[in-house]
Design brief:
The complex is a heterodimer.
Chain A (H helix, E strand, L loop, with lengths): L2 E5 L2 E4 L5 E8 L5 E8 L3 E10 L2 E4 L6 E6 L2 E6 L8 E8 L8 E2 L3 E5 L1
Parallel strand pairs in A: 2-11
Antiparallel strand pairs in A: 1-3, 3-8, 4-5, 4-9, 5-6, 7-8, 9-10, 9-11
Chain B lengths: L2 E3 L4 E5 L4 E3 L2 E3 L4 E8 L5 E7 L5 E3 L5 E5 L4 E6 L8 E9 L7 E2 L3 E6 L1
Parallel strand pairs in B: 2-12
Antiparallel strand pairs in B: 1-4, 3-9, 5-6, 5-10, 7-8, 8-9, 10-11, 10-12
Classes of the chains: A mainly beta, B mainly beta.
Chain lengths: 113, 114
């Protein structure tokens, strides 16, 4: 069966420090991969999605970037965190078929102080 | 661009009451529609989805949703809620051909009082 893991689960970082959140998927190949941010009252905001290695689409201009160095690995990064980057980040995957179910990871709480 | 609106941000019901959560989307083409649920302390998980065919979709735990194309709506219903239905509910839409890009609404927090 397929599984998705992301880490770290909780992170407290000072303003201006770098960020790296990592996500891996097991049990499937060539998945679509996603990073979402969940903020209170704002639902789930799609940040990035990827349909293949090295292919990243950015949905929202921001201080973050994403990379997909391997087929089942998706990394969310920042060179210098802002206070506004605080939030709950969710990695997710789906098969390549249009409209298929998206499966979410456990989430990572980021607090920028 | 697609968007999803959930008009009820916070709903409080007593057990056995009926539930209807509103969801409207904006997109002129063919869409796939979803309801996801997040129980306290758990992952987001799929509740039900509509791709085509019968516009009345039945999901897990007695939930159902009706796709009304003319109203661009996909409301979630349950005839009798339980305390265990307390959760946050998200409506989502994926436009056909959009490479599985799922756009979510802002969520509705449902609290069921025993």
């Amino acid at each position: 069966s397929q599984t998705i893991h992301q880490w770290p689960a909780t992170l407290v970082q000072p303003v201006g420090s770098p960020l790296s959140l990592e996500c891996t998927v097991e049990g499937t190949s060539n998945p679509n991969l996603y990073w979402y941010r969940q903020a209170a009252g704002r639902g789930l905001q799609l940040l990035f999605y990827s349909v293949g290695i090295g292919q990243i689409s950015s949905e929202v201009p921001q201080n973050l970037s994403a990379s997909r160095p391997q087929d089942r690995q998706f990394i969310l990064s920042s060179k210098k965190l802002l206070l506004s980057d605080s939030g709950f980040y969710l990695c997710a995957w789906s098969t390549g078929r249009s409209g298929n179910t998206i499966y979410f990871g456990e989430g990572s709480w980021l607090t920028v102080v | 661009a697609q968007s999803v609106s959930q008009h009820n941000h916070h709903v409080i019901l007593s057990e056995a009451a009926s539930l209807e959560l509103g969801c409207n989307y904006s997109y002129g083409g063919t869409v796939n529609l979803f309801w996801y649920v997040q129980y306290p302390g758990q992952h987001l998980q799929l509740l039900l989805k509509y791709f085509s065919g019968d516009p009345l979709v039945k999901g897990i735990k007695g939930f159902e949703a009706e796709f009304i194309k003319s109203k661009f709506s996909f409301n979630l219903r349950k005839p009798s809620v339980q305390w265990s239905d307390t959760a946050e509910y998200f409506c989502a839409v994926n436009a056909e051909g959009a490479t599985n890009k799922l756009i979510f609404g802002t969520g509705t927090l449902l609290a069921v009082q025993p």
